[in-house]
Amino acid sequence: MDPAAAALRTPGRTSPVNAHQPVMLEEALAGLNVVPDGIYIDATFGRGGHSAAILERLGGSGALHALDQDPAACAHAFREFARCPNFRIHAANFERLGEIARAENIAGRVMGVLFDLGVSSPQLDDPARGFSFAKEGPLDMRMNPGAGESAAAWLARAGEQEIADVLWQYGEERDSRRIARAIVAARREAPIETTTRLAGVILAAHRGPRQKIHPATRSFQAIRIFINRELERLPAALQQAVEVLAPGGRLVAIAFHSLEDRIVKRFIRDAAAAEPKTLRKLGKRFPSPAEAEANPRARSAVLRIAERIA
Which fold has domain 129-228? Predict the structure, then answer.
């Protein structure tokens, strides 16, 4: 048994409570084509919105395995999903998806794997996590606060060129060099340890007219992606997802910016063109106009679907 996993199979209530409404829920469920006796993996549990909806469609012989590296997400799963007999939470990054599937003896039998990429709304909304500059908080940005280096620690030691490279590569920030120079100058005066301090440094370094988005948006995105190795881990996780799928099983991925969507798009394209082919493209979806209007975070979402070929 995976030591980082916890079985949540207490008899009783069969559906979780207090699940958050996720982006593109109906489109994700349609893409997964959930069947009552199927085995599914939610590779990015978050606060369980997608997981709750999948569980509602499963029968007694169906099963859902969920992964999340965030201790707060796992605690939520224990608290709200503990009485779901066919649910299991694994405290792990999705780069361990294949390992967990083999340990649980479900590799090759999974009917659907879902990725909802990027930072979750609860992480973004909690100032203590340091993902957003909207409110002051410690400059952390780790999806698992107990592992790796915080954003503040990295900014304290990284060279100017490294900072500029990260801002350009992961945030496509055109002022990356100017911002990196400003960060290095500012930290000489005092450590950059809060979200608002970093946002202020970036704002002061920004040139040109004001844009629709805050000037710090791309830099915060870039640092978060770098600190959590999000794009670095994604290709291997997608490959593992294909390997654990049964023939006819579905891969569904929701991306929120062009860098991660490009990785998903190219992965599906290459798998569909390879010999032997392992995936068949089933298209992409976008949020409905009503959802995009009601939830600004949904506006940039792209959902891609592929099916495992025998």
Answer: DNA polymerase; domain 1 (1.10.150)
CA distance 129 to 243: 34
Residue 92 structure tokens: 């792990």
Q: Give me the pLDDT at residue 206, please.
A: 84
* Residue 3: pLDDT band with limits 50, 70, 90: very low
**pLDDT value of residue 1:** 30
Residues in the chain: 310
Handedness of CA 262, 288, 133, 137 (dihedral sign): negative
Nearest CA to 241 among 82, 127, 95, 103?
A: 95
Q: Give the predicted TM-score (pTM) of the model.
A: 0.87
Beta strand 39-42 with 5-8 is unpaired
Q: How many other CB atoms sit within 10 Å of the CB of residue 30?
A: 15
Q: At what angle do helices 258-273 and 230-244 cross, to 10 degrees?
A: 30
Residue-range domain boundaries for the chain: 5-122+230-308, 129-228
**Strand pairing partners for 284?**
304
Q: Which residues contact 298 (CB under 8 A, 6 or more apart)?
A: 23, 24, 287, 291, 292
Q: Which two tokens stand for residue 32?
A: 């997964």
CA angle 86, 90, 231 (to 5 degrees): 125
- Give the three-state DSSP class for 111: strand
The DSSP call for residue 260 is: H
Amino acid code (one letter) for 92:
A
